[in-house]
Amino acid sequence: MSNSKQAVPDTLPLLRDRIDSIDSQIQMLINERARCAQKVAEVKLAEQGGEAVVFYRPEREAQVLRRVMERNEGPLGNEEMAKIFRQVMSSCLALEKPMRIAFLGPEGTFTQQAALKHFGKSIISAPMAAIDEVFREVESGAANYGVVPVENSTEGVVNHTLDSFRDSRLKICGEVEERIHHHLLVSPNINADDVTHIYSHQQSLAQCRAWLDRYWPHVERVAVSSNAEAARLAADAGRSGRAIAAIAGEVACELYGLSKVSSNIEDRPDNTTRFLIVGNQDVPPSGKDKTSLLISAKNEPGALYRLLEAFERHGVDMTRLETRPSLMSRWGYIFYIDFVGHYLDDDCRAVIDDLRERASEVKVLGSYPVAVL
């Protein structure tokens, strides 16, 4: 007769008890982490005295999230695990000092969605009516950071954002890449078959054109100022019994209490928008960084070639080049360049030194961690 113990089979009550026990341990550890965050705030205040204390460290948070993803063993995916830690970090940081984040509004836009993705939900959201207002809010100190769109994978660059850097002293402190999913939304009391108009921003209507042509060819499309405004109009119309639909994202859907008729209706499933985080301080190296420059080239033959040759000579990977009118001289141009690395890296410093010899002006817009999520 065997003396070995037989394994007790899993039963629903036993599994639930185990989950309750794990939840208790997780909760205890989260609070322990929060107490450590409070201690961090106390140490910073003691060390820096009356000077402005920087509680949020972009490079530190990027390093933490990268380690979370590197050591993750599943079954939760790396991004899902990082999102959980992102919110834990956001809640702990709010204990030190809640941050006010300005973003291109109104509430419910994809820019707000990007702000929440980058900073977590434990922030004070401050919607602004225009991109230059976001810059002014951060420059004045009324907001800790700002979030603005800079490029879309299908629609190209956001020129207003690039132009705002010309006269601004703000630094780029981070980036967010947000996969843009559009949903067809209606008020919960509305029958989708009765919809007479579909409201959205003109870019969103363009990004969903083929889907709309196939499934809603006879419904009038109306361009409005933003997807969030479309969601608000659909919610208001629903309260009066009018059948209006909106194309908007997840945040707008939740904010205005709408129901999804169809999800992910964008024509290109890889449609992605890149957003920049702007702030007042330089960001130390995180180990995986990107640098952005603004360059005014000399008006002479081969000027652009000589700028680009500096990257090849020092082995630095340039990832983006955009051209904008200078506004300082007729037919003059300035260039916006992104490249891999931090401006404190030896090879990157060598490139910038070369560029300063070859260009009329070189402005380092910032070095910042490459988007983690």
Give the gist of this structure:
With 373 residues, the chain is an alpha/beta fold. The protein has twelve helices and 15 strands. The chain is globular and about 70 Å long.
Explained architecture:
Its EC number is 4.2.1.51, 5.4.99.5. The record marks 273 as: Essential for prephenate dehydratase activity. This protein has 373 residues and is of the alpha/beta class. Among the domains are: 183-262, Periplasmic binding protein-like II (D-Maltodextrin-Binding Protein, domain 2, 3-Layer(aba) Sandwich), CATH 3.40.190.10; 289-369, ACT domain (Alpha-Beta Plaits), CATH 3.30.70. The protein has helices at 12-48, 58-71, 78-96, 110-119, 131-139, 159-164, 202-207, 209-215, 227-239, 250-255, 303-314, 346-358; strands at residues 100-104, 124-128, 145-152, 156-157, 171-179, 183-186, 197-201, 220-224, 244-248, 259-262, 272-279, 289-297, 318-325, 333-340, 359-369. Strands 1, 2, 3, 4, 5 and 11 form a six-stranded mixed beta sheet that branches. Strands 8-7-9-6-10 form a five-stranded mixed beta sheet. It is globular, with a radius of gyration of 25 Å. The mean pLDDT is 92.
Helix-strand category: alpha/beta
Could you name the ranges where pLDDT drops below 50 across 5 or more consecutive residues?
none
Order of helical and strand elements: HHHEHEHEEHEEEHHEHEHEEEHEEHE
Number of helices: 12
Q: Enter the CATH topology name of the domain at 289-369.
A: Alpha-Beta Plaits
Overall mean confidence score, pLDDT: 92
Strand content: 25-35%
Distance between the termini: 56 Å
Q: Which CATH architecture of the domain at 289-369 is right? A: 2-Layer Sandwich
DSSP strand tally: 15
Q: Let me know the largest β-sheet.
A: 6 strands, mixed
Q: So, the CATH homologous superfamily of the domain at 289-369?
A: ACT domain
Catalytic activity: chorismate = prephenate; prephenate + H(+) = 3-phenylpyruvate + CO2 + H2O
Function: Catalyzes the Claisen rearrangement of chorismate to prephenate and the decarboxylation/dehydration of prephenate to phenylpyruvate.
Keywords: Amino-acid biosynthesis, Aromatic amino acid biosynthesis, Cytoplasm, Isomerase, Lyase, Multifunctional enzyme, Phenylalanine biosynthesis
Pfam families: CM_2 (PF01817), PDT (PF00800)
